[in-house]
Amino acid sequence: MKLSTKTRATTLSVALAGTLALAACGASNENANAGSGSSDSSAAKLSGSLVGAGSSAQQAAMQAWQAGFNKQQPNVTLSYDPVGSGGGREQFLAGGIDFAGSDAALSPEEVDKAKTPCGTEGVFELPNYISAIAVVYNLPGVDDLQLSPATIAGIFNGTITTWNDQAIAKDNPDAKLPSTKITAVHRGDKSGTTKNFTDYLDKTAGDVWTAGAVDEWPAKGGEAATGTSGVISAVKGGEGTIGYADESQAAGLGIAKVKVGDEYVKPSSEAAAKVVEGSKVQSGRGQYDLALDLNRTTTDPSEYPVVLVSYHIGCVQYKDKTKADLVKSFLGYVISEEGQKAAADSAGSSPISDASRQQAQKAVDAITAG
Predict the structure, then answer these.
(1) How far is the C-alpha of 72 from the C-alpha of 334, rounded, in Å?
(2) What one-character-per-residue DSSP string does 344-362 give?
(3) For 180-223, what is each residue's pLDDT tens digit?
(4) 20: Cβ contacts below 8 Å, ≥ 6 apart
(5) C-alpha angle with apex 346: 344 to 347, nearest 5 degrees?
(6) What value, to the nearest 5°, has the Cα angle with vertex 213 and ends 207 and 215?
(7) How far is Cα 361 from Cα 356, in angstroms, rounded to an integer?
(8) Residues sharing a CB contact under 8 Å with residue 318, sequence separation 6 or more, in sequence order
(9) What is the CA radius of gyration of the chain?
């Protein structure tokens, strides 16, 4: 990953609200040894609670992070509500949670709003979860589907309405395509997955997809579903359906190959990681803000550009020292090799690179209390 020399740190707390609350007993609340970036059973033992909310795409990885971190810090309770990236950012900016998980970076306006919960030191945004977005479909008899960016855009803006449309047939000259009506499933909630998906369409097929990169679905028609699990359920539940979702949750559905350059590429953790490596940190960001400008228009078939980078967003400076120590300790585990492997094993995500880990560690080390 081509990272700038600037990084910006905030505190991240994670917990799976209602579903996975990990608690334990007995340890003194001491300063966290969060600067190690690795799993360390000798780290100072902490107690308290962290509350996060946001990206549903991160859910499987978050469960793995919760379990691994709980082994290190059994006295810490983590809760995380997978309400969607937009909901997580809104709760964080309102001061209602300790950190947010978001599949889209904060907008400049949101960065400014973050001064309310975080003060003048502002926020950090760490790209700790990388995963391909799969274009998933349910079309019996069609096991190998290929789609160009313009065709995907036409399907989701509602101008391509049947599976035997000439645009789909052109992408799949050897396939027997039925005349089945297409039902395009999209996220009904504010979603970072939607933001990443529409950003891809905007940059690769902007003449067809004219709605831009947005986190709330802009097109009329289709079927709306809440959360990643809702999209998967809706696609599985209907014939002729197509949707977009984190690849980690696409089991049991057809996954389309996407045209990259002159070839059609299936999503993989390796191809997703490679396109992130070729991307740059956005200009004009704070020291510990690692929001990326993803290279969606790559023509390298070893890269998969329909990729989701999910961030942990928190405050560089917390008002409470205990909270700062907890966030610092948790994020230190998340970015460690052990933490990234746990997420990869559980969610099929792509581990962050060593260069990204080093940048993120600077941000984690900077987390403090006012």
Answers:
(1) 12
(2) HHHH-PBPPPHHHHHHHHH
(3) 999 999 999 988 899 999 999 999 999 999 999 998 999 889 99
(4) 62, 63, 66, 78, 79, 80
(5) 70
(6) 145
(7) 8
(8) 11, 98, 324, 327, 367, 368, 369, 370
(9) 20
End-to-end CA distance of the chain: 32
**DSSP 8-state secondary structure symbol assigned to residue 46:** -
The rounded Cα 91 to chain-centroid distance in angstroms is: 17
Strand partners, 258: 147, 265
CA 163 to mean position of chain CA atoms: 30
> Cα 8 from chain centroid?
18
In Å, what is the CA distance from 126 to each residue of 274, 331, 332? 18, 9, 11
Indicate the Cα dihedral angle 143, 149, 155, 156, nearest 10°.
120
Tokens representing residue 339 in the block:
């933490």
Q: How far apart are CA 219 and CA 158, in angstroms?
A: 8
Q: Which residues are registered as beta bridge partners of 265?
A: 258
Rounded Cα gap, residues 245 and 243, in angstroms:
7
Can you tell me whether residue 254 is helix, strand or coil? Answer: strand
Distance CA 333, CA 38 (A): 6
Measured CA to CA, the distance from residue 53 to residue 86 in angstroms comes to 10
The whole-angstrom separation of Cα 306 and Cα 272 is 8
Confidence of residue 158 (pLDDT cuts 50, 70, 90): very high
Question: Of the candidates 336, 340, 357, 330, which has an alpha carbon nearest to the alpha carbon of residue 14?
Answer: 330
Closest of 60, 50, 61, 55 to residue 21, by C-alpha: 50
d(CA 201, CA 154): 10
The one-letter code for the residue type at 338 is E
The answer, yes or no, to whether residue 234 has pLDDT greater than 50, is yes
Alpha carbon distance 59, 342 (integer Å): 13
Q: Which residues, listed in sequence order, are joined to residue 20 by a DSSP beta bridge?
A: 16
Cβ contact 290:276 at 8 Å: no
